[in-house]
Specification:
Strand content: under 5%
Largest sheet: none
Order of helices and strands: HHHHHHHHHHHHHHH
Oligomer: single chain
Number of strands: 0
Shape: globular
Radius of gyration: 24 Å
């Protein structure tokens, strides 16, 4: 009987094409074994070999996430099921249907209060996520376990529902398209992060805003809430316009850095995922400033 290759060796071999492949170790072996055990326990009817699962994990993580600490943060049982669905393993698709596709009506309920789109969305997800194309794997293979599978699927379902509603609108059905956006690109992981960490971002932003000096908040408020340009602010403070512009930039930079530090303390994310969250912070900074500084609690 052939002795099984340690999972850490299988994992490292699968990463050999990447720059920073993980070196086999007892810690890595225990981590990989734990990931597989979690999936096998949650989905007991899915017979998924540990070596095959570990190879699939290696294909889904970046070189900077190949260490035990980063791997331990993955949603192991969700990733196990997604990988099993990619391989079309017996019982995997049935589990996915029962525990995830069945939630589609709830995911799209706000966009589809009459319940007219849910069945179409569910069928589209079955096709897109579970059926491979001739030149590519099924889209469930895009799920990498960084967030929970239910949240990831919710984003996919919402985007599908929006697309279907736009199609109905173009055909003259007369259904208004709601103003909901989850990004323009195909990066579902980033879209998931936008939804998953919105609350943490808002809390971190408000905490950072509270740390600013009152005159710093007032300076930002004059520009972003009251709509004063740098010349008018300069006239109020008797400052040159270049000085006003520099102060505004410094105050924004300070607020961004405080928000970044607060998020670092609140979230245990990999560098790549944290970078995605910070991209959201930068894109929402002006909107957040206008909303937060306009509230009575922050009026000076």
């Amino acid at each position: 009987m052939t002795e099984r290759l340690p999972l850490s060796h299988t994992f490292a071999a699968a990463l050999r094409h990447q720059v920073a492949a993980a070196a086999p170790s007892e810690e890595l072996e225990a981590c990989l074994q734990s990931l597989w055990d979690a999936g096998r326990t949650t989905w007991p009817r899915v017979e998924f070999g540990s070596a095959e699962f570990v190879a699939d994990v290696a294909a889904r993580v970046g070189p900077e996430e190949a260490d035990p600490k980063s791997l331990a943060r993955l949603y192991a049982s969700d990733l196990y099921l997604a990988c099993a669905c990619s391989r079309r393993l017996p019982h995997a698709v049935a589990y996915f249907e029962r525990h995830f596709i069945s939630r589609v009506p709830a995911y799209v309920g706000r966009l589809d209060p009459a319940g007219t789109l849910a069945d179409e969305v569910a069928q589209e997800l079955r096709t897109r996520l579970l059926l491979p194309k001739a030149d590519a794997q099924a889209q469930i293979g895009d799920y990498s376990g960084r967030g929970n599978l239910a949240g990831w699927l919710r984003v996919v379902a919402l985007r599908a529902a929006l697309r279907l509603r736009r199609s109905q609108h173009r055909l003259g059905v007369g259904i208004a398209v709601p103003s909901v956006s989850f990004g323009r690109g195909p990066d579902l992981e980033r879209d998931y992060l936008r939804v998953r960490y919105r609350g943490e971002y808002e809390a971190a932003f408000r905490a950072a805003l509270g740390v600013l000096e009152s005159d710093e908040r007032l300076f930002l408020k004059l520009h972003y809430v009251d709509g004063l340009n740098i010349d008018r602010i300069g006239a109020i403070y008797q400052l040159h316009r270049s000085t006003v512009a520099r102060r505004l930039a410094n105050h924004r930079r300070k607020l961004l850095e405080l928000t970044r530090n607060s998020l670092r303390e609140r979230l245990g994310l990999s560098d790549s995922d944290f970078g995605s969250v910070m991209a959201l912070v930068r894109s929402q900074m002006v909107v957040s400033l206008r909303l937060s500084l306009a509230e009575p609690a922050h009026r000076d």
